[in-house]
Amino acid sequence: MTAPGKPSTAEELRGVGLRVTAARVALLDTVREGDHLGVEAIAAGVRDRVGHISLQAVYEALHALTAAGLLRRIEPPGSPARFEGRVGDNHHHLVCRSCGTVADVDCAVGHAPCLTASDNRGFSVDEAEVIYWGLCPACSSTPDDRL
Amino acid sequence: MTAPGKPSTAEELRGVGLRVTAARVALLDTVREGDHLGVEAIAAGVRDRVGHISLQAVYEALHALTAAGLLRRIEPPGSPARFEGRVGDNHHHLVCRSCGTVADVDCAVGHAPCLTASDNRGFSVDEAEVIYWGLCPACSSTPDDRL
DNA sequence: CACAGACTTGGATCCATTCCATTTCTTGAA
DNA sequence: TTCAAGAAATGGAATGGATCCAAGTCTGTG
Question: For binding Zn(2+), which residues are annotated in this chain's numbering (chains A, B) (predicted)?
Fold first, then answer.
């Protein structure tokens, strides 16, 4: 089974080996419907759906879902962590210096300097900050992950 | 006066309208010699030079120097803020997921997808995170900066 | 059904950062 | 050189996001 079309939230959870609980389903839905929500906002959204959830449970679930690859965590310098449901595609973010609003942008692959977003969504961009994540030479030659 | 060649640290401070104090000179030198240092490391470096400085003074001075454009603050998600002396040029960073080491990279302007750094310095990059800073449509049409 | 895993409650704790009131110091002018 | 204005530095307290802990309850899942 598992119609290839569009798996339900529950099926997605199961698909990555996580238990399906009301809280997690509500959390996943909340994050996907929301727009780069912070932890508090997510907790509020989940409470709207299932009545109650503790902040700790929210943190726990966010970790689990992020680790499972169902959510992505972004942390614009200067503001608390935010989460989004868009994963898998390589997209970046526009952050407003004034109000902190976050918007998605596709990666400008293939053309232009990386300073230019493929679509600036109406933002007036004054800086592009790029962080390349990976392993430094020393760490990539080390067998295990030492932290 | 002010030989165009290479202004002293003190002259640079004066040049941006800041007072010249031993602490600031030492701090600026420390950051420039160091490699993406954190606040604690900077404080330690300054203490090596001038004997003593409070953490608060370090924060205050870092703010002042950053605002003045003499330093740049970078904040890789998951680690405390770091400061560097390279300003003015548009360069980005390589961050090691394992040890947190930060290295500079020039912007890959003009060629390649932004996923590819101009020189990866030996890092094995698995992700490029781009944050475009600017003002969202709403904020850019607003006369004053409301936060 | 039984159990591992998830959730709750209620702490405590950690860390980076900021705020406060007070004192000290740099600086430019007298 | 002396002085006053105002910026900078100080110690101490406080804030806020995030994490962790332990004990007990609940609940998916095999």
Answer: 96, 99, 136, 139
Cβ-based contacts of A136 with chain B (< 8 Å) = 94, 96, 98-99, 101, 103, 121-123
Taking contacts as CB-CB distances below 8 angstroms, the residues of chain A near B115 are 90, 107, 109
Contacts of A9 (CB under 8 A, 6+ apart): A25, A28, A29
Instruction: Please report the beta strands in chain B, taking only residues with DSSP state E, as ranges in sequence order.
Output: 37-38, 72-74, 82-84, 91-96, 102-106, 124-135
- Using CA atoms, how far apart are residues B65 and B87, in angstroms rounded to an integer? 11
| Residue A24 banded pLDDT, cuts 50, 70, 90 | very high
Strands (E) in A6-144, as ranges, are 37-38, 72-74, 82-84, 91-96, 102-106, 124-135
Distance in angstroms (rounded) separating the CA atoms of residues B74 and B38: 10
Residues B52 and B99 in one domain: no
Report the number of distinct structural domains present in chain A: 2
**What is the residue range of B15's domain?**
9-83
Low-confidence ranges of chain B (pLDDT < 70): 1-7, 90, 107-121, 125-127, 140-147
Q: How many CB pairs under 8 A join A and B?
A: 194
Q: Domain check: are A113 and A74 in the same one?
A: no
CB-contacts to strand D (7 A): A 13-14, 19-22, 38-39, 55-56, 59, 63, 75, 80-81; B 18-19, 21, 23-24, 52-54, 56-57, 60-61, 64
